[in-house]
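Re-run with default settings, no changes from the original entry. Doing this only to confirm the output is reproducible before filing.
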Amino acid sequence: MFKFRPNVVLRFNLLVVFFFTLAGIIIIGKAAIIMFIERDDWNRIKEKNFKRNVPIYPHRGNILADNGDLIVSTLPQYRLKFDFKYINKDDRENERIMNAKRDSVYNKHLKELCVGLNDILPGTSVAELEKRFRDGLAKKKGGYEPYKGNVSYSQYKKIKELPIINLGKNYSGCYTTDNIERKNIFGDTGNSTFGIVRTAEIKGKKVDEVNGIERKYNEFLKGQEGEGTRIKMRGKYILREDIAPQNGYDIQTTLNTRMLDICHNALERVLKEKGLGAGWAILMETKTGDIKAIVNLSRIVRKDGTVEYIDTIGRIPRFNETPNHALCDLNEPGSIFKTVAMTAILADGKLTTKDSVIAYRDKQHKFSGASKPIKDEVYRDNGTGKYSMKDALMYSSNISMIQYIRMAYENNPEEYTNTLQKFGFTRNYNITDDEKTPKIKLPSTRGEKNGWDGFSLSSMSYGYAVQIPAINMVTFYNTIANGGKYMHPRLVKSIQRDGFTIEKYPTRVIDEQLFSKAVADTITSMLVEVVNGISIEKFDKRRIGKRDGTGKNARSELMTIAGKTGTAKAYGNKNKLLSFCGFFPAEAPEYTLIVQMMYDYDADPRPKEIKDGSGYGGGSTSALAFKEIAEKVMAEKLASPIENAIDETRKSEPAIKSGNMKEVNYLLTEMGIESDGVQSKMSGSWGDVALNNGKLHTTEKRYDHKHIPNVRGMGAKNAVYLLQKSGYHVLLDGYGTVKEQTIVAKDTIKLRLRQ
């Protein structure tokens, strides 16, 4: 029988107490160690595995064209890298076997890989790629980049399907590093206006916009940070969103992508042809003041001062977008300012078109206050020995302009400078934050260093003693084209989020009638004579050439152009600013345009035929680009969609969409439609369908992965099929037949449809 023994129970209880006490001491001790000794270590672990208030960065807003198309966005980019080092240094046998297999694969399929990469990636050659791969393999390089450039997601998807790479990382050594970049969809065209944001800054560091829209509208574009908690789970970090970020707003501009392209190409062509160093252009819509294009180009000069050439044999330099000369450069404009002086004289009622001045046959005259004789490049004997106002502009006579400005304002020069200020030549339009304010000399500065002197008024009649950015000059000419209505230049139309307009920036009228329409019409007629030699009232193509003005190179067979040439010598050197400013069509102006180019005397190469730059003027350079831009802009605008017209006498004829010829053949056969028989040879292929002399005619289309398929005229089904097959994502707007296709991202095409 069990006998209760108190001493045993006591000992047991004491033992339990002892163990619990010991455990408590250990726990307290460990806690103390953690709290006081290991605290920093545990905090680091906590920080690593669990962190609050982690910033979640928003997506920066987009910059859009006038029609809402994407121009600048934040897009994922990839770098293509290859690791040709040993696969596993701890396993020599595995290393040997794997390297042998890899070498065998590359020996057999390297050519195929390089051909495939050359098809997908721009600016590469098969031979160069093959050479780079063999170099990397031979030297067992790690992180090696045979192609030094960014790769889009759509390109990367195609690359993963190429020989060798499709075998996986262990055999090919291929991997990618991803990045987020601020990209201009259309290359570098317009970058000086859009501005630049660096990749690292998009990810959360201080935004350092170089210039342009990115800086001026940064508060809207950057969005608002969110907050989250970072947690490590199963060896991976996840970010829990506590406060959602607000993405940036989109900025819709007035810029037109097609017009940007036209201006860029025309400017670059003339710069290369004439051997000039830089050029810029601003295209403005007359009625609204909307800026449709700003382009700034300069040839690329390396750090050592040498020019980068596209073609070293032909010495053709490479050009790229530069700082915004059109908004930021303060230059003496030269003879394009004569139009301003003549407008002021007429607007202030100082003289009339019946007045005239002496035309000096020897093309030079010493005026009071001038340090040397003033010269004219041209003299034309009109039989009177005098020059009218029209003659003064048409022949760009410095001597005549000085006489006119002295007749009008010599006794009261403040009236002239007041008029110039009223005309906007001391105004900053604040289009971007880096825009410069014009400078003109004032009579009140007489006696000051570089202030008003005895010849300042005369100099300001033909474009010296003033420093005017291109934006102010084109805005003034736009006022003439607008019949005296002074519009504020507009670059941004609205601020948007998710396609909804948050804030609008309407067109602004600075002055409903800065000067009378009669004055504007008179000046317009003069500017037409500068280009065509005859007035707009007497315009007759048969008479063109009888009286050539300095702007004859801007003359167009397609429309009447009004404009003025300008050639200004840079102060203190032999450089020249070469200009042409005007508007078109002169009878009913739609666009105003300024083109300016810089003749850099010290640049290499200089034009060989004209060593000192004499003979280079705005008429022989910028006027050529002006004409090209004007003709192409109006051709785009006036193009009639003839292929879409419906003849009222043929309403019974079906509207057959372009697309798969097998489907078209079936339709034609079922409807008994007569055709020229071409389509029977194209079964299963793709083509266009058109009516030709009462018969349906088809034209075959061939597609490859190198080019974006032209799907205009196709039904939505066929268009989407072709584009997706070529690796593009498709956005649809409307329904029916494809009217227009637009690249909105490197791998995305937007289709506008109509019924």
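The mean pLDDT is 80. The first strand starts at residue 50 and ends at 56.
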